[in-house]
Design a protein that fits this description.
The chain is built from nine helices and 15 strands. By secondary structure, the chain is of the alpha+beta class. Helix 7 runs antiparallel to helix 8 (294-302) and helix 8 (294-302) packs across helix 9 (316-331). The model is unreliable at 352-358 (pLDDT under 50). Residues 215-337 form the Reverse transcriptase domain.
């Protein structure tokens, strides 16, 4: 008969006799008297274990951390691998020092429909809004005028409206900006007649920069710190000529003029692949210069979040050296740093090169970087 262990104490009754043998006990239960005693095994086995290791404690600890550590190389999805492969295939260094890349299309490229009519309707609506705000209209004109003067967009005479993509555009205003209050953003998510947008046909690519938590944590460990950002980072990366037909816009300076067609020559705000193409090219600049300045290029690789640089060193002299090296490396790829700021007054000295951008090397007042105090 098997009885559950939870009933053991319910079966015991008052009455217990210990025999002279010492280990034998008579216990009264609801079923009568029971006999209990320790059972001795006629033979006891003794097991001797011996462990021999030729490795040192340091090697054992190292193997432990190698086993527990996360892989340093990010594992890419098939789509991310295709995007990275296509980037390397189309990457080109221009005579100006800038880089040109191709738009990373996926398999839906041939599904794009006609987009001109939608872009025209959106532009006419935009123009009506701009005519009611003279200040906004003038800022919009100035932005696109600069766009054209810098070679980031070019007017097109002959065009095939059926086999190209026209980007609607609109203004984004940031009153707190110290450099550009208004920015024109292009809508690559606008659907064509087939229901497919340009963003639907593009690979977004992997994240190539480190996460924000790691960057900010390292930034707080430095004795001397400095910050900066890349001027017009997206637009310093050009799109190869064969792909510029998918970056066309409609524009005119006033309603009395004829609507003109322009093509955008550089990486464009509002396209799903743009963050990857821009940040990947910054990483490429660092990779190309790694043999010359290994520490500075390592900082570019690890301490940049999109277009913001947050880094530092232990001494003022070392910080000044890194600042010079990082600026030189990025400028060779067409990326210019601006809006410098530091927590040390000695870094308030301007370089011999003049700049139109405001420079601040004072953290005595509130200074924001990445939108964080």
């Amino acid at each position: 008969m098997l009885i559950g262990a939870e009933y053991f104490y319910q079966l015991l009754c008052i009455g217990q006799i210990k025999l002279k043998t010492g280990t034998t006990i008579l216990q009264r239960t609801r079923f009568g008297w029971v006999v209990t005693r320790k059972i001795y095994s006629p033979s006891q086995k003794v097991n001797n274990l011996c462990h021999l290791s030729r490795s040192t404690l340091e090697n054992a600890v190292q193997r432990f951390w190698e086993t527990e550590e996360l892989p340093t190389r990010k594992i890419l999805s098939p789509e991310e691998e295709d995007c990275e492969k296509y980037y390397k295939q189309t990457l080109e260094k221009l005579s100006s020092g800038h880089y040109a890349v191709g738009l990373p299309f996926n398999t839906k490229k041939d599904e794009l429909g006609e987009s001109y009519k939608t872009a025209l309707t959106r532009f006419q609506g935009l123009e009506k809004r701009l005519t009611t705000d003279a200040k906004l209209y003038e800022e919009y004109r100035s932005f696109l005028k600069e766009y054209e003067n810098l070679g980031h967009m070019t007017r097109v005479e002959d065009t095939d409206k059926q086999n190209e993509y026209f980007l609607p555009h609109h203004a984004v205003v940031k009153n707190t900006s110290t450099t550009t209050r208004l920015r024109v953003v292009f809508d690559a998510s606008a659907k064509t007649t087939s229901g497919v947008s340009l963003n639907d046909t593009l690979l977004t690519g992997p994240v190539v920069q480190q996460n924000l938590f790691s960057i900010v944590t390292r930034f707080r460990l430095h004795n001397i710190v400095f910050t900066a950002d890349i001027k017009k980072m997206f637009r310093q990366v050009f799109i190869r000529k064969d792909d510029r037909q998918y970056q066309k816009i409609l524009w005119r300076n006033n309603p009395e003029e004829v609507i003109q067609i322009y093509k955008l020559n550089a990486v464009t705000y509002g396209m799903s692949s743009s963050p990857y193409l821009a940040t990947r090219t910054v990483q490429q600049v660092a990779a190309d210069e790694r043999q010359t300045f290994p520490e500075a290029t390592d900082i570019i690789t690890k301490d940049m979040y999109v277009d913001d640089l947050l880094t530092g060193a232990e001494t003022v002299k070392r910080t000044q050296t890194l600042k010079t090296q990082i600026s030189g490396i990025l400028s060779r790829g067409g990326f210019n740093l601006r809006k410098w700021a530091s927590n040390h007054p000695q870094l308030n000295e301007r370089s011999e090169q003049t700049t139109e951008e405001p420079i601040c090397f004072d953290f005595s007042d509130v200074h924001k970087t990445l939108g964080i105090l």
